[in-house]
Amino acid sequence: MFWGGVFGQAAGPDPGSAPALIVFVFLPLAALSIPLDRVIRRALARWFGLPPMSITTVFGVWLSQELTWRLDVPFWYWPDWGAFGNTGFGVAAVLGACALWRSQPRAAMVTIAIVGGAALASGAVVGRPVGPPALWASSLIPVSFALGGWYLRSCRRAGLRAACGAAVAALVWALWDGSGLSWILPPLVAPAVLGTWFVLGFHFTARERRLLMDPALHRVAAALRVARHNQRRVIALTGAGISTGAGIPDYVSGAWLDAEVPVEWYDHSHFLANRQARIAYWDACARFRTLAAAARPGAGHRALAALQRHGWLSAVVTQNVDRLHQTAGSDPVIALHGRIDGTRCLLCGWTGLWPDGSPETETAIRHGRAAGGGAGAGAGVGVEVGSATATAGPWHAHDVTCRGCGGWLKPDVVAMGELIEPWQWKAAHAALDNCGVLLVIGTRLLISTAATLADRARHEGALIVVINDGPVAGVHPETDLTLERPIEDVLPALVGLLE
After folding, report:
1. Is the domain of 462 the same as that of 315?
2. Mind telling me the catalytic residues?
3. 185 and 233 belong to one structural domain
């Protein structure tokens, strides 16, 4: 488009120069622009998480201008460019507005409002009806539509942020034009690019900015808005993947298991039949308990808690036992597989503290403190990880038994082959009633309970959104939406879009 002036010189004062410029300058620059654009895109995305927009065009025009001037050819020659006069500008404005409206009606309204207001204000200042066309055509329209129609199209405050970007672009353009720099390097769309970068850089981290260029993230945000508008529930089903960012290895790694112990010994049937298997199970849970006690909620946990606080998320159903969701502030949380910081009697259902050998714990167990076995049993008991390790636990000396009924105590987590507590399973199923969106986060859906809950949500007509940094089994590509990206990046970016 900008080389049109040079092409038009065939009818200008020096018609013989145009063919040579096309062959020796334009074509090499056009060929160079393709790899240059790729380099710029990768550099901006990798180092800054920013979109390239039209910055390659700006560099290309500046280089073209420099080369043509050195050849003593005016680059900005426009033969009869205003042939249609003000009518042409009006027709162009109407057609441009229609094109924007057809693409993104909401963003078009924001763009028209911003540009129209700026044009009237500019016209009032400089005394012309619409002000400098280069201001709104090359700066305000691109930044307004880029923010409102693309990068922040799912953001509640997209219009306000587009207006901020337009204000920054207008300021840059005014300073650029007023300083005389435009005679050396014309601003073109550079103010629009800088205004867009400013807004994205001010409101989002580099990781979040990279995600803003992924259409799938905007589809998730739009789905949550639709569910909220239709008064349907949004449920998060989380697995071990959300806690790996907090320093807790996932179950596949087996980091807390003893490599010398057969894996089948950790099955619930072996716990009931084999004392050595019980010792191995207590040892493994003690190691995991130490990891969980030292961990702090990650960015994914905090983001889900924020979504719940602001009413975007109805409940969290988790396969995890580390209680990091509760620590982050999520409520309600349905812990399908129990909690690693408590114990449970297999006979009477009593729940309480770990038998770490301390006098306080032994007294609590002896007097049945926190007894009851219901949904909230033991919920208020604080557990400290002392100096006891897997090799020093009291379960090595004898089976740990309930002081009330004499039944075996077991860490309050669901083992392989063990059934989930009926009231937990019922609560998880009830949470999916009227579910509009199910966020499947950090789980591969390999465990039957998770796969069953996903199918239950599909039966309710819910959109299944899978967020996991790796492949997930049981995904329906025709209907499910998948974001194969780090959870610690996706969820905070989603909060940023919605709030």
Report:
1. yes
2. 337
3. no
